[in-house]
Design brief:
The complex is a heterodimer.
Chain A: E1 2-6, E2 9-11, E3 19-20, E4 25-26, E5 33-35, H1 37-52, E6 58-64, H2 70-79, E7 83-87, H3 94-107, E8 112-116, H4 127-135, E9 138-149, E10 152-159, E11 162-169, E12 172-176, H5 188-196, E13 199-202, E14 211-217, E15 226-227, H6 233-243
Parallel strand pairs in A: 1-6, 1-8, 6-7, 7-13, 8-12, 9-12
Antiparallel strand pairs in A: 2-5, 3-4, 9-10, 10-11
Helix pairs in contact in A: 2-5, 3-4
Chain B: E1 2-5, E2 8-9, E3 12-13, H1 15-31, E4 35-40, H2 48-51, E5 56-60, H3 70-83, E6 88-92, H4 95-108, E7 111-116, E8 126-130, E9 135-141, E10 146-150, E11 165-168, E12 178-185, E13 198-202, H5 212-222, E14 225-228, H6 230-234, E15 255-259, H7 265-271, E16 276-281, E17 294-297, H8 300-319
Parallel strand pairs in B: 1-4, 1-6, 4-5, 5-11, 6-10, 7-10, 13-14, 13-15, 15-16, 16-17
Antiparallel strand pairs in B: 2-3, 8-9
The chains are: A alpha/beta, B alpha/beta.
The structure holds flavin-adenine dinucleotide (FAD) and adenosine monophosphate.
Adenosine monophosphate (AMP) binds at residues 6-8, 36, 38-39, 62-65, 91, 94, 97, 115-116, 118-119, 122-128 of chain A.
Chain lengths: 247, 320
């Protein structure tokens, strides 16, 4: 089984989010880029475990991004993975990004494509299902468990208020979240090996953007907390009813 | 035509489906067109959708659609959209939508906004949450056909009774790539976390799973759904689906009561769009107080029973 893992860079979770140029551009200065946590902790690590257990033969990594995506790609290679592909285009629209990955995956016939449940910057959760449509493959969102049995995948996925178990035949695209695997830290051997693993840069296919972000906005600042004495919980009840009007 | 996917679970519509229909009806009114709902699989009472503004209801009761299937659902909705001259398809942004809406975007070449929180502005742009609740983006869809996936509990439910004429939707479903499908949902009548208007949440400050009774009682007093911080789920004190934050669920209830949670930035990422936040913590320096509307500095084990009692008597007076 040949696996393709979709990885993207994302600003570190503690980043202070700011915008410039009349609120049209995210300020990237000083931002520390990390591997999107869902891609790293769940999709990538589970793919590596499947390779270690013999269920998968090859694990390839793919990212649509500029040269500044390479550090996180090297990190992913250090965790494991046989080779990486960078499609040399800025990620500006889910449709376009998915078309790039879909095109590449189709030409290189993968049995399984794994992605994160969402990117922590754009929070769309769209790219994985879009890739599945390009491949005419089955898709399962928000999987929490994945095991391989012959040509089938035994999965568990999150649903509203619970979970669902299901078996899906390959080829398939799966988006991954917590539960799927445990986070790993790259070791020295992995880091050394990653330096010589292939990281191929591919020029993008022609694809359009269907959306455009015109501006950003920060939420209004909280006006400050109103403290209530622990002995006077009735005051909180009154405030929630009369002022906040939530109960 | 505006077409709204109205999801059912075991035959019952979710609250979020009514919200999506309300949104679709408002969008239709703005554009001078009609709003239709599409329902896949068994549904107990289709007429409920008319109450929130569905002029028409396309229903396929093909048994193969009782369970979620990304390919089959996409096929059914795209046929419904094509047959009705639909310009915009509306979803409620949950795990089901994430399995179909993006596929439809590719199939119909319809630009998509996921996680919308408002109706399109006058310039057509749609506001959505980005950076895990730390900011908003205004996104323009450049294609004539559009898909909008609405964050639950963002615009609310509006009653607006319409005819809701039911039409049968014929779709041939032949996908056999999913088998052994069984869903388990927590029993009880609390609203699923993603749609809940009231949420009470516990962190490591509650010390252990054996202490969750006081939080459950607080929740029961106002009919709130339970949530927790990540270490609580990681330690298996609570089930994973209750975990909120950067790596868990993102919610925007009207009221979020955080008990014994420090308020780390990754936790806030999942809850900071809540309309009102109450924090109960022994440590006056806990970062959560900075993001809160109301706070009580105190010991959860002393404050919660009192607060529960006060809420219970408030509810009793309301009922009279
Ligand atoms: C990449 C990344 C992603 C993460 N994702 C998430 C996420 O999705 N969700 C999440 O929650 N965390 C997440 N975390 C972890 C996060 O950083 C915090 O460690 C976590 O939220 C802390 O949980 P807590 O507040 O329950 O525990 P603690 O930080 O231990 O806080 C416990 C709080 O309880 C208070 N307390 C103690 N006793 C009492 C009492 N008797 N009564 C009242 N209060 C009391 C203490 O004063 C303290 O403020 C993530 C971390 C990273 C690095
Ligand atoms: N630029 C990209 N390159 C590779 N994979 C991506 C890219 N953007 C998104 N993905 C994958 O799609 C998932 C969901 O992203 P999104 O739809 O942006 O929320 C991510 O977790 C990644 O696995």
């Amino acid at each position: 089984m040949k696996i393709l893992v979709c990885i993207t860079k994302a600003p570190d979770t503690t980043t202070k989010v700011q915008f410039t140029d009349n609120n049209t551009r995210f300020v990237e200065d000083g931002v520390q880029w990390i591997l999107n946590p869902y891609d790293e902790w769940y999709a990538l690590v589970r793919a590596l475990e499947l390779k270690e257990s013999g269920a998968a033969t090859e694990v390839h990594l793919i990212s649509v991004g500029g040269a500044d995506a390479e550090p996180i790609m090297r990190k992913a290679l250090a965790l494991g993975g046989d080779q990486a592909i960078r499609i040399n285009a800025e990620h500006t629209d889910s449709f376009n990004t998915a078309a790039q990955i879909g095109e590449y995956a189709k030409a290189n016939s993968y049995d399984l494509v794994l992605a994160g449940k969402e990117s922590i910057d754009y929070n769309n959760g769209s790219v994985p299902a879009m890739i599945a449509e390009h491949l005419d493959a089955q898709f399962v969102p928000n999987a929490t468990k994945l095991d391989v049995e012959g040509g089938s995948l035994n999965l568990e996925r999150e649903i509203d208020g619970g979970k669902e178990t299901l078996t899906v035949s390959i080829p398939a695209v799966i988006s991954c979240q917590k539960g799927m695997a445990e986070a790993r830290i790259p070791n020295m051997r992995g880091i050394m090996a990653a330096r010589t693993k292939p990281l191929n840069v591919v020029e993008p296919a022609a694809a359009e953007n269907l959306t455009e972000t015109t501006s950003y906005e920060l939420p209004p600042a909280k006006s400050g907390v109103k403290l209530i004495d622990a002995e006077n919980v009735q005051e909180l009840v009154d405030l929630l009813h009369n002022e906040a009007k939530v109960i | 035509m505006i077409l709204v996917f109205a999801e059912q679970q075991n035959g019952a519509f979710k609250k979020a489906s009514f919200e999506a229909v309300s949104y679709g009806a408002q969008l239709a009114a703005k554009q001078g067109t009609e709003c239709a709902a599409v329902v896949l699989g068994n549904a107990n009472d289709l007429s409920e959708l008319a109450k929130y503004g569905a002029d028409k209801i396309y229903h396929s009761n093909n048994e193969a659609l009782n369970n979620f299937n990304s390919k089959s659902y996409t096929k059914a909705i795209s046929e419904a959209a094509n047959n009705t001259g639909t310009t915009t398809i509306v979803f409620s942004d949950n795990v089901t939508a994430r399995g179909i809406a993006p596929r439809l975007s590719v199939r119909l070449k319809a630009g998509m906004v996921s996680g919308a929180i408002a109706l399109p502005a006058n310039d057509g742009s749609i506001k959505k949450s980005v950076f895990s609740g730390k900011a908003f983006a205004h996104v323009n869809i450049k294609t004539d056909k559009k898909i909008i996936s609405l964050t639950p509990n963002s615009v609310g439910i509006t009653e607006n009774a319409k005819a809701g004429a039911v039409e049968n939707l014929e779709v041939a479903i032949d996908d056999a790539s999913i088998t052994n499908q069984t869903a388990q949902t927590a029993s009880g009548d609390t609203v699923p976390l993603g749609e809940a208007e009231l949420v009470v949440s516990g962190g490591r400050g509650l010390k252990g799973p054996e202490n969750w009774g006081i939080l459950e009682e607080l929740g029961a007093s106002i009919g709130a759904t339970l949530a927790c911080s990540r270490p609580v789920a990681d330690s298996h004190w609570r089930p994973h689906h209750e975990h909120v934050g950067q790596t868990g669920g993102t919610i925007r209830p009207n009221l979020y009561i955080a008990v014994g949670i420090s308020g780390a930035i990754q936790h806030l990422a999942g809850v900071n769009s809540s309309k009102t936040i109450v924090v109960i913590n022994t440590d006056p320096e806990a970062p959560f107080f900075k993001a809160a509307d109301y706070g009580i500095v105190g010991d959860a084990f002393e404050v919660l029973p009192k607060l529960t009692a006060a809420l219970n008597s408030f509810k009793a007076t309301q009922a009279n």
